[in-house]
Structures are given as C-alpha cells and as structure tokens.
Amino acid sequence: MLTFFAGFIGFAVCYIAAALCGLREHPVWTGLIGFAGFLAVVIPVNLLMRKKLEKILKKVQSTLMSSQDVLRRKVTQIQRSFAGSPKAMQGLLEKEQAKTLKDALAILDETKPLFRWNALAERQVNTFRAQLHYQLKEFDEADKYMKKAFMLDPVTVAMKLARQYMRGEKAGLDKAFKKEVKPKNAAKVQILCALYSWILVKENRVDDAVAFLATVKDTADSDVLKMNWEHLVNGRAKQFSNSGFGDIWYALHLEQPKAAKAPQQFRSASPFR
Questions:
Q1: 196 in any annotated domain
Q2: pLDDT tens across 230-270, in order?
Q3: By CB atoms within 10 Å of each CB, which of 40, 110, 169, 195 scores lowest?
Q4: What is the pLDDT confidence band of residue 48, given thresholds at 50, 70 and 90?
C-alpha cells in the first residue's frame, strides 16, 4: 500500500537525519525519531484519503436519497390521478430506481484511485457495491463483492445469507444464523430473525421455527416476530408473514409485495458511523 511506502520513506529520512546529527550512537533515539517521521507521513495521508472517500460515499447516499424523494412524488401524482394500473406503476418505479442505482455504482468508480492508499477503502466500497447490485438483482455481481466486503450491518448480512439460501447452499445456514443471532442482540438483528424463521417455514421445519422464535420474540421487540410465533404455535403456518417489516424485507427479493408500493428506502452500512 502506498501509504506505508510513503511512511517508510519518512522513517528513512528522519532516521538518517538523526544519525547525521550525532545520534548514531543512540539507536533508540534514532529509531524513535524515524518512527515519528513514519507517523508524520502516514497519519495525514490516511486522514486525507479517508476524507476523500467519505465525500464520495456521501455523494452516493445523497444520490440515492434524492431519488427516493423524486419517486415518492411520482407515486403520489400517479395515485392522485388514478392513471395506470398498479402493475404499470410498479414497473415505472423499478425502472427509475434501477437507473438511480446504476448512477450510484458509477459514482463509486471514483473511489478506485484511493484503494492504493487506504487498505480498508476497497472493503468499504465493496459493501456499497454489493448492496447496490443486490437491489438491481444482479446477484452474481453482489456475490462477488460480498466476498470482500464488511459484514457488519444486519441488512448486508441478511443479503449474504439470503443469497446462500437462493443458491441452495442450505447446509451451513443453521450455523451461520446461530452465529449472527443471539437472544440478547435480537432487537438489533430483527431482519435476520425474520429471514431465518422464514427459511425454516419454507423448508417445512415449523417446529424449529417455533423454537427459534420462542428464544428471540421477547427480546427482539418486534410485533411481527411475536405474531408469526403465535401463528405457528396455533397451527396457522399459512398466515406466517414478514410483510410487516416492509421495504427492508422486500429488499431481500425473496418475496414480492402484493400491491405496488412506494420505492424502498435504501439502507447501507455506513463506514463512518
């Protein structure tokens, strides 16, 4: 990485300068001065690269949020005029949103020169890319970027595990969910609780779904999870539904909403929280 290379040059310059100033016989002091030269280069460069990366990522988020406002106004106008069928409106929204997501991906290309300077920049950007490609249903591309992305945000983790299920890789799902979901953190990972219980029901493992929801329903602080548990306990598996989670659930592309909805609000793991 160029940052450390530049830091090494700073170390060498300060080390040599200290030696020439008569500290040759004091290797500890010479080393400390050299290390100070290393930090004097690395810290400002990292801060500068971080600032540039943050500016680009904020530009991406601004583009996405601005698009949501425009699409909501369009939905309102269409609904007020009663023009077009719900299916046609949904098609229009999806087309507009796809354009916005592709514009956001194009903006992310501006980050590529920073990868040589910041070791974490590429992973931060890959997290955004994975989410955007997932929203576009470009799942192969999403899979590629998820392999080198930060898996810190519950939505990103849910996308990764949903893809694992889509690919039919079910063997390791139980272990993966148990790693991510604990009763004490259920409130923070509600979407993962919803996803795992949905998969269990889809796989006709209703008893397992009941047992799982029983461990998280009280700490997850979710009426949807509690209601799903009640449905399953009382033999109403057909009434199990995660629709109450709204756009965050439909963003996983495992189910489609029954009626045209306003565009889903994009959620991502901001690397600057």
A1: yes
A2: 999 999 999 999 999 998 999 999 998 875 444 454 555 44
A3: 169
A4: confident
Q: What is the pLDDT of residue 7?
A: 47
Q: Give CA 225 to chain center in angstroms.
A: 22
How many CB atoms neighbour CB 204 within 10 A?
10
Rounded CA separation 218/143 (Å): 33
> What phi-psi label fits residue 3: left (phi over 0), alpha (psi between -120 and 50 degrees) or beta?
alpha
- pLDDT of amino acid 109: 93
Q: CB-based burial of residue 172 (10 Å sphere; 0-12 exposed, 13-18 middle, 19+ buried)? A: exposed
CA distance linking residue 39 with residue 42, whole number of Å: 5
- Whether 99 maps to a domain, the answer reads no
CA–CA distance, 151 with 136 (Å, rounded to integer): 19
Q: Which two tokens stand for residue 170?
A: 């079910």
Position 14 scores a pLDDT of 52
Tell me if 212 sits within 8 A of 200, measured CB to CB.
yes
Its pTM stands at: 0.76
The whole-angstrom separation of Cα 178 and Cα 173 is 8
Number of domains comprising the chain: 1
Q: Largest Cα–Cα distance in the chain?
A: 86
Please give the torsion angle defined by the CA atoms of residues 45, 48, 54 and 56, in that order, rounded to the nearest 10 degrees. Answer: -100
Position 27 in a domain: no
Tell me the per-residue pLDDT of 108-166, one tens digit each, with 9 for 90 and over: 999 998 888 777 889 999 999 999 999 999 999 999 999 999 998 999 999 999 999 99
Residue 148 per-residue DSSP state: T
Task: Give Cβ neighbours of residue 120 (< 8 Å, ≥ 6 apart).
Answer: 271
